[in-house]
Amino acid sequence: MWISMEQYEESGMKNTVTITLNGFQEEVAQGSTVSSLIKYFQELDKDLIVEHNGRFVYPGEYPRTVVDDGDRLEFINPNFGG
Amino acid sequence: MQDQRDQLRYQRQMGLPEIGEQGQKRLARSRVFVGGLGGLGSVITTYLCAAGVGSLRIADRDRVEISNLNRQILHWTKDVGRDKTVSAREKLAALNPDAEIETHHLEIGPENAAELVQGCQVIVDGTDNLQTRRVLNRTSLDMDLPFVHGGINGFNGMISTFVPGRSPCFECLFSEFGSPSSPPPVLGSVAGVVGSLQSLEVIKCLLGLMDGLLCGRLLFMQGQTMAFREISLEKNPDCPECRGR
Ligand SMILES: [Zn+2]
Question: pLDDT tens digits for chain B (245 residues)?
Fold first, then answer.
């Protein structure tokens, strides 16, 4: 059954996905990448470790790593003291 | 070396089938390089020495300061002002007179790292900065030796064992990171946990228990919630040091 975009939005369904970010549920735009989420959540610290579903994400992969519904994302500050 | 006194000293660990008399001999024949004698290095060297690792080569450039004592348990109030290498050698020799403790009071750099690590089977990270870790990682790749990394910050810590060819290297993960402007606040107990886990990784390396190493995995400890999390690591083809080999 096809519905129009208006009907779709009126029905309360939105183009968002729910992810768990640093342990908290967040609703973010569908198709969000790690890069866009770092901007969106204003993570100003450049030196950030990103974990996506238990996997270490390298900075080079940020623009092409898309989050999906139910994904777990962690922004982690590295520990370099001794 | 396995005289009666050794049998007694190491009795409780030699009872482990993974160690036994052969494993204990293996530890006694081993030499480990530990870079840094701070919070992590204090714990790492203490446990390796107590476990009967035959030879420890240790490098540190610092003197003991009073502000070190909340976490650097190898150094005591009476040691303030002394070289950390001197303080460490004294304690470790008293703990286990059979251990060979070779100390170098210097700054680890690209010019001396290969020589410092020569003859060792494992490189251990007891440092408190990125630059020295980068040097030790390069040396680990050049000399094909495992590099047991640990780091701490406040209530938190992280650990991973980098094995050349088998796992990513330190720079795969952190080549784009900059050094923090000031040393982080640190709780001694956290150094205790992370340093202790590092010493366990070293002992496993020396015993050849390679399958259970924290290799290709980064373990995160969050002390405030007492949560331990593991992140799986893949090789990074963009790594300037190992190129994902
Ligand atoms: Zn690498």
Answer: 557 888 899 999 999 999 999 999 999 999 999 999 999 999 999 999 999 999 999 999 999 999 999 999 999 999 999 999 999 999 999 999 999 999 999 999 999 999 999 999 999 999 999 999 999 999 999 999 999 999 999 999 999 999 999 999 999 999 989 887 788 999 999 999 999 999 999 999 999 999 999 999 999 999 999 999 999 999 999 999 998 87
User: What's the whole-model pTM score?
Assistant: 0.93
In a domain, A22, yes or no: yes
Judging contacts by C-beta atoms under 8 Å, the chain B residues touching residue A59 are: 176
Q: What ipTM, to 2 d.p.?
A: 0.86
Cβ–Cβ below 8 Å for B39 and A82: yes
Asked if residues B82 and B64 have their Cβ atoms less than 8 Å apart, the reply is yes
Please state the domain count of chain A. Answer: 1
Domains of chain B: 4-232 (3.40.50.720)
Contact B183 A81 (CB under 8 A): yes
CA distance A81 to chain B (A): 5
3-state DSSP call for residue B230? Answer: strand
CATH code, domain carrying A20: 3.10.20.30
CA–CA dist B245, B241 (Å, integer): 9
